Amino acid sequence: MQQLFDAALFGSTLRIMTPILLAALGGALCSRVGLFNVGLEGLVLIGAFSAIVGNYLFGNVLLAVIFSIIIVMLFSALFAFISINLKANAIVVGISLNFLAAGLTTFALRAIFDVKGAYYDKDMQGLPKWDIPLIKDIPWVGDVFSGHSPLIYLGILIVIGLQFYLFKSVSGFRLRSVGENPVAAQSIGIKVRGIQYGAVLMCGVLCALAGAQLSLGQVTMFTEGMTAGRGFIALVATMLGQANPLGVMGSSVLFGFMEAFSIRLQGFTLPTHFTQMLPYIVTLVAMFFFKDRTYQQDALKAGGSSR
Amino acid sequence: MNRVKESLRGLVQPLLAVLIGLLAGAIAIMVVGGSVVDTYAEMWKGAFGNFYFFTNTLARSTPIILAGLGVALAFRAGFFNMGAEGQMILGGLSAALTALYLPGPGWFVCIAAIVAGIIAGGIWSLFAGWLDARFGMNLLITTLLLNYIAINFGGYMVSYPFKDTTGSAAMAQTPMIDQTVWLPKLFQGMSLHAGFIIAIVAAILIYWFTHKTVTGYEIRMLGSNPSFATYGGVRRIRMMMLSMIISGGLAGLAGAGEVLGTQYRFLDGSLSSASYAWSGIMATLLARSHPLGTAVAAVLLAALQTGAMGMERNTDVPLEVGSVIQAVLTLFVSAQIGYSFLKRRKEKKSNATTV
């Protein structure tokens, strides 16, 4: 037991949680304006890849992250255009976007780096590790909370900022009203489309950060399909958290912990297949207990798009 | 006359989409510095160049057609079944185990294995449907999650209890299925097997079911206008269960066909790495859930994939160009769905009906 639940387990929980959390916050923004974004997986994948490309082009981590944000915003604008202006079913557009991301990243991997499967360069600099003064000297807490990449701390700050923005600011109220009832929102002069675009573009920024944390956070590399379903897990986190930033944070912590735990269990005699299955089973069980009623109503309003 | 006109108009959009996809592919080819005409010529040769390549394309399309039909039926009923991959894997695994351990004459075991595949896929899909109907758990998400569970479960079964220990290879796979149980080949020395005929028959059957039977009509009605369907007495839960079990059964059949007709064993990762299930979803999106259209779109996608392989053998252009074309195609068609929706809304307005 002592071996199983040490500080390192909680430290890696934070690391694993961050990409899920960032993408799920993006998903929450989208669902707040009434667009269920299934394309999170693809957006994060593009983010991870473009972060590596940016790093390769500029040799600077900050510029790499900015480059990734610009690229992913382009793709989220595509999602916004097709689902808002052309009024396509957002779920179908999201699925197609995932295909596009998988195809484009594998193709670009060949075209830019001339490698198949994975790109790795030992000279490339990943995200820095920050030691938090004061906290790093506290025995157990320091091991858990200190020495992570800046994006992990940024993720937690964004949760607090977003919670405040959505529920305490006027602009946040307007944003929520668009998702609740677009017609009513429009009748009092709120620019519905503008707000929807803004939310989807912000979702792109968050997905880019999630991708950057994936590819530049631990190891500086990109592998084909490296998101491996994390975008879908983020979607579940959005739903479980009822599109509330704090709720999303809670469910992301749960998934991060389950994955860290399952990696830890591999050191024991259990077959890896079962430990890898564990996060998905826990997700199913969590869905059973925390049903997202608001989403069901949204789906009904949208003409039963998914149900 | 009207019908002909209508089907022609239905063809315009897919053809336009193919054109746009090829255009995107051309840009990708130019980016890597290849000659567009030569590359597309090699692609065509790789897919349809001679009889051998052509049957290869059809063989590859077989699981895509079946998985796509399953997804199409669920789409028609208004449900997003994203779990074709998991259903296919469990179907393939059950078919392999039945073929290995059930005694009896070859033809009997073969049929039993196919049935086992259908049942396994159907039950896995029905489970997701039941979770939705009974507990309100979102189907789109549960089917996705169940995929990962099925992949890991299949991997475990062939890595431990049913692992092939006879060969020297350390692959995670079941032993080879006896030759008498194999699905027969359609042509000597070609990879095309009887599964393709099953897939075509299934496409026609599903078309007949959705367009000519009362239950099929109810399923389509449920998908296009749920509240009207419920008002008209369609039992939603029952229809959902039915469409999910058929949908999963078709995916399971796809897995069984691959195991009995192509690989002759269940090999860990072989069904998921070729992403047949996701190609099936693409085919459905391209054909907008029309059963016969899905079959045609599946052959088209398979041709793109085999063509891209042929192209990579003979040019410097990477085969991933194929996936770019497929993805752009699908994205474009999804936009077109919205376009037709817009037109419908305009018509509604001019008829002065309230929403």
From TrEMBL, chain A:
Pfam families listed in its UniProt record: BPD_transp_2
Subcellular location: Cell membrane
Membrane-traversing stretches: 12-31, 38-58, 64-84, 91-113, 150-167, 194-212, 232-258, 270-290
Main localisation: membrane
Keyword Cell membrane in record: yes
The keyword Transmembrane helix appears for this protein: yes
InterPro entries in the record: ABC_transp_permease
Membrane topology: Multi-pass membrane protein
Keywords: Cell membrane, Membrane, Sugar transport, Transmembrane, Transmembrane helix, Transport
UniProt signal peptide: none
CDD domains listed in its UniProt record: TM_PBP1_transp_TpRbsC_like (cd06580)
Entry protein name: Simple sugar transport system permease protein
Organism, as annotated: Paenibacillus tundrae
Automatic annotation (TrEMBL), chain B:
Transmembrane regions: 12-37, 57-75, 106-127, 139-158, 190-210, 239-257, 323-342
Protein keywords: Cell membrane, Membrane, Sugar transport, Transmembrane, Transmembrane helix, Transport
Topology class, membrane: Multi-pass membrane protein
Coiled coil regions, renumbered to chain: none
InterPro entries the record matches: ABC_transp_permease
Any Pfam family matching the protein: BPD_transp_2
Protein name according to UniProt: Simple sugar transport system permease protein
Signal peptide: none
Keyword Membrane: yes
Predominant location category: membrane
Cell compartment(s), UniProt: Cell membrane
Domain of life: Bacteria
